[in-house]
Amino acid sequence: MGAIKTAGMGELKIGGNGDTLAAYGIGSCLVVICRDKSRPVAGILHAMLPEKPAKKAEAAKYVDSGIDALVKEMIGLGTGIGALEAKIFGGARMFDTKQEGETIGERNIRKAREVLQKMGIRITGDDTGSTYGRNIEYSVDENRAVVRSFMSGTKII
Amino acid sequence: MTQEKLTDFQRDALKELGNIGAGSAATALSQLIGRDVGLDVPRVAIIPVEKIAEKLGAQKKIVAAVYLRVFGEIKARTLLIFPQEKVMLLLDLLMKRELGQTREFGETEQSALKEVGNIIISSYLNAIAKFIGLNSVPSVPALAVDMLDAIFETVSTEMAEMGPEAMLIENEMTEEVTKVTSTLLIIPDKDAMGRILKALNDTMKGA
User: Fold this and answer.
1) CB A94 to CB B144 under 8 A?
2) Which of A33, A138, A140, B160 is least enclosed, having the fewest CB within 10 Å?
3) CATH: 3.30.300.20, 3.40.1550.10, 3.30.420.10, 3.90.1150.10. Which one for B8-206?
4) Is the ipTM of this complex over 0.90?
């Protein structure tokens, strides 16, 4: 029977057949879901900031090192790098501050695209940016993410 | 340093600060609304920043949150959180509508909320600043209406600059039979809380 595996802030989780990968209350954080095209194996990363600042920091907190860690873990479980595909979520601007320049959410999105592109991992789904919080539930078997928000209804990605 | 480790002086001083802040917020709000508003402070506590999410509870609840950064001699981040149902009532009062009339957060409602948030937060900040003799300069308030956890995690990403403790102030605003509860979080930058607590101790002893 499948389980719901939830990635809290700065966490990454791997799921298999019948599992649901979830992340809740995503504001400016960036969620990456990588799946193995060839079999029902997928992983979810819930990163907070774009770049890992120092050697001792926790990898999954940051988009760059987090994606790296997620991919490494899936490869360790037998996934070929060529079989990986990703969907990205989050990076919202939650507060209406009259801020100049990029918000943390926007930087997270940009970093995720950059890292995934460098690794040659195609992005097949995307619900990022805007100003609303998201709850994400991804079915590994169906490769289908249900994204719920307060202000913007439900999306299937 | 957390609630359990505060001295009696500090605990009393915190309560006193809460009352002073509440008093001036009530006066300002009464002027704004044009009706008598009372503000009670059932609780002022110092809690570790990691425990904030736990203390706030009900993470998927929809809330309206006013975010204000504080600069000057005491640097901090502040977040005033209203549960959705309560904020609608508050807006009814502010916009002089019948209770239950406000249904959505249009531009006018958002401005009104930010103004109320600004008044309440600034009242407490001024009380603290006066008590400890250090100034604080608030930024322009920002508003978010969404799931509590999505809002709070956005503030959390700035954890690195924040100190280890936060001040949690529970408010109860009353206007006749209408009660609006809200929670104010004041998260000073590293060292700032220590200075506040030390000043609380010194001030009480001197009083």
Assistant:
1) yes
2) B160
3) 3.40.1550.10
4) no
